[in-house]
């Protein structure tokens, strides 16, 4: 579903991602690990068409993320942990509706999906309240609903549980498991190794923009001679901490 091949991204003299190649298949959950500044967010932004690769290619569902960016965006739902992208003066429903219109959905479709998502994430009681007064967990749920309003087949989550309380974080983790059951392709970045171990089919480990590992956790444990993901991660990228 997602193919990243030889991708490099530079910003002036700085290389954020260098020669990155990996893939994520349908119904697969891929965890992206790396220290701050490793290139995780830049990679997800390129897959979502927010950024263009300097070199290399990215395809989503067989479509080129640069030449067919508009079509790719219809397939992708994206959430950045520190950026909900919500409008505080609008209600949760109005925020979701606005993004549904951006995707060209009909009003009846938006209304039905909004109600369904509100029930799924237990948002019904505050669906018609302005998001400016919401807790971070409540905003995160609305942001997720907004990212799913067009029923994307690909989901990209960047640090989705960052800063959330235990209850809200568990909702996100359960959701990622449901995405897999629904056959969606999921890539999410995280610093919480326990949720990576629990949810991921494969992991991609980056360090200073370069690929350090791409494969299953079982293969990584065998290769490293350890089942301690924290320790393995630190051995791979520790010098950059």
Automatic annotation (TrEMBL):
The keyword ATP-binding applies. Keywords: ATP-binding, Nucleotide-binding, Transport. It comes from the Bacteria. The keyword Nucleotide-binding applies. Pfam families: ABC_tran (PF00005). Residues 2-233 form the ABC transporter domain. GO terms for molecular function: ATP binding; ATP hydrolysis activity. Belongs to the ABC transporter superfamily. This is ABC transporter ATP-binding protein. It comes from Tumebacillus avium.
């Amino acid at each position: 579903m997602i193919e990243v091949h030889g991708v490099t991204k530079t910003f002036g003299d700085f290389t954020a991602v260098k020669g990155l190649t990996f893939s994520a298949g349908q119904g697969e959950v891929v965890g992206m690990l790396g220290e701050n500044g490793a290139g995780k967010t830049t990679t997800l932004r390129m897959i979502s068409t927010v950024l263009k690769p300097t070199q290399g290619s990215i395809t989503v569902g067989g479509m080129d993320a640069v030449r067919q960016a508009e079509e790719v965006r219809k397939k992708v739902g994206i959430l950045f942990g520190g950026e909900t992208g919500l409008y505080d003066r609008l209600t949760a429903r109005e925020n979701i509706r606005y993004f549904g219109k951006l995707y060209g959905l009909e009003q009846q479709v938006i209304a039905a999906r909004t109600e369904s998502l509100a029930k799924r994430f237990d948002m019904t009681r505050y669906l018609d309240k302005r998001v400016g007064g919401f807790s971070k967990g409540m905003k995160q749920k609305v942001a997720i609903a907004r990212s799913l309003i067009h029923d994307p087949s690909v989901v990209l989550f960047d640090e989705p549980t960052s800063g959330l309380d235990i209850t809200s974080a568990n909702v996100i983790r359960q959701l990622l498991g449901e995405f897999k059951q629904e056959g969606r392709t999921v890539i999410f970045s995280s610093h919480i190794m326990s949720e990576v171990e629990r949810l991921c089919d494969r992991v991609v480990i980056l360090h200073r923009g370069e690929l350090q590992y791409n494969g299953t956790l079982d293969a990584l444990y065998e290769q490293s001679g350890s089942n301690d993901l924290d320790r393995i991660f630190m051995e791979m990228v520790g010098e950059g901490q």
